[in-house]
Design brief:
four-stranded parallel β-sheet, 9 helices, alpha/beta
């Protein structure tokens, strides 16, 4: 509240917060049980009341995250929280596949989708060194730009995140959560 009251934009972050994985017992999906869902709802409402202007939900099944988005007046963005949030957020590590030991379930590397386009762009260039010096479009910057454009296109068209990059929840768990006073 004090940060918000001082004029600084506050973005809340709930669900799986990577900085708190040790208290969760590792990278565990949140919002799959009634208690986890209700705790996240209460925290979301408290953040909104305290002046957060945006909420980021991470690593939650689509339906519980969507319910939270419906409850709040502020925009709710998802990173691994399904397609029912107000928007999607991604980091470059996800888009480019910069992972050594672990890749989150929801992370989609776009490099395989855009590498052919990148190769086609360069195939007609006679002097690749000169092209690179003049345009800086011969390396990772271009691949990154193509990957981001592909991600944006998929989000706008509703292709991403889709079920393939969303966390599942059992019908039994969803039925229990839907009995919550916060479920509308």
């Amino acid at each position: 509240k004090a940060i918000s009251d001082s004029g600084i934009i506050v973005v809340g972050h709930l669900g799986l917060t990577p900085q708190s994985t040790s208290s969760f017992g590792g990278y565990k999906v949140q919002g799959k049980t009634l208690s986890s869902f209700e705790e996240t709802v209460k925290d979301s409402l408290a953040l909104e009341e305290a002046g957060a202007q945006i909420l980021l939900l991470e690593a939650m099944p689509t339906e519980p995250a969507g319910q939270i988005a419906n409850l709040l007046k502020i925009p709710v963005y998802g990173v691994g929280a399904g397609s029912k949030c107000d928007g999607q957020l991604v980091i470059m590590h996800d888009v480019m596949g910069f992972y050594e030991n672990f890749r989150p379930w929801f992370a989609k590397c776009y490099v395989p989708q855009v590498i052919t386009k990148f190769k086609e762009t360069l195939s007609g260039i006679k002097d690749i060194r000169e092209f690179g010096r003049l345009n800086r479009s011969d390396g990772m910057l271009s691949i990154s730009e193509l990957a981001i454009k592909e991600y944006v296109s998929e989000v706008k068209s509703g292709v991403f995140p889709g079920e393939e990059y969303s966390y599942p929840i059992s019908n039994e768990s969803l039925a229990k959560i839907s009995q919550s006073e916060f479920w509308k």
